[in-house]
Amino acid sequence: MPLPPTAYTCSKQFEGYPCCHRQWRHPGHCRFMHGYSRSFTVWFAAKELDACGFVVDFSSLRPLEAQLRQQFDHTFLVNGDDPLLSQWQALHDQGALDLRVMENVGMESTARLVWEWANALLHERDGSRSCCWKVEARENRANVASYEDWPAWFSAVAS
């Protein structure tokens, strides 16, 4: 995906989110509860730098980091249509696990979710000056999924 003309870019890595999930539809071992320490690399772009000369001030990303920690730190992720959802909810209510229900717990969908969160934060704060254009979601060193897109509000400015 080409960058808009004269766009500056940078990236930030977020690491250390141990959680578990299951892909209940998977015919193999992924249907069982299993865990990873998820990490994310988030790419940003801006047509112009801010007053400090940054695409994105990394210290301003604390709300995104808090959202990642709340969603993925020592949590159990399940799809909203998991047939065992009521049992998982009961275990959550008993304090045995910290349940997070998602549309899809897969890394591809997780990458898109983080992309959406990053762009919501940036758009609210910076208007259309900066955006997130790519997120890599890792469940370990070997397995990576990514989502790339330009938010419509940034593409319109870049055109």
Q: What's this model, at a glance?
A:
The chain is of the alpha/beta class and 159 residues long.
Set out the fold topology.
Blueprint: E1 8-21, E2 34-46, H1 62-72, E3 76-79, H2 85-93, E4 99-102, H3 107-126, E5 130-138, E6 144-148, H4 152-158
Parallel strand pairs: 1-3, 3-4
Antiparallel strand pairs: 1-2, 2-5, 5-6
Structure, explained:
This protein has 159 residues and is of the alpha/beta class. The protein has a single domain, classed as 6-pyruvoyl tetrahydropterin synthase/QueD (Tetrahydropterin Synthase, Chain A, 2-Layer Sandwich). Helix content is 30%, strand content 31%. The chain has helices at residues 62-72, 85-93, 107-126, 152-158; strands spanning 8-21, 34-46, 76-79, 99-102, 130-138, 144-148. It has a six-stranded mixed β-sheet with strand order 4-3-1-2-5-6, sandwiched between helices. The mean pLDDT is 94.
Features:
30% helix, 6 strands, alpha/beta, 159 residues, Tetrahydropterin Synthase, Chain A
Largest sheet: 6 strands, mixed
Task: Round the Cα radius of gyration to an integer and report it.
Answer: 17 Å
Q: CATH fold name, please? A: Tetrahydropterin Synthase, Chain A
Give the beta-strand count.
6
Give the overall average pLDDT.
94
Listing every helix as H and every strand as E from the N terminus to the C terminus, the arrangement reads: EEHEHEHEEH
Overall geometry comes to elongated
Q: Strand percentage, roughly? A: 25-35%
Tally of separate helices: 4
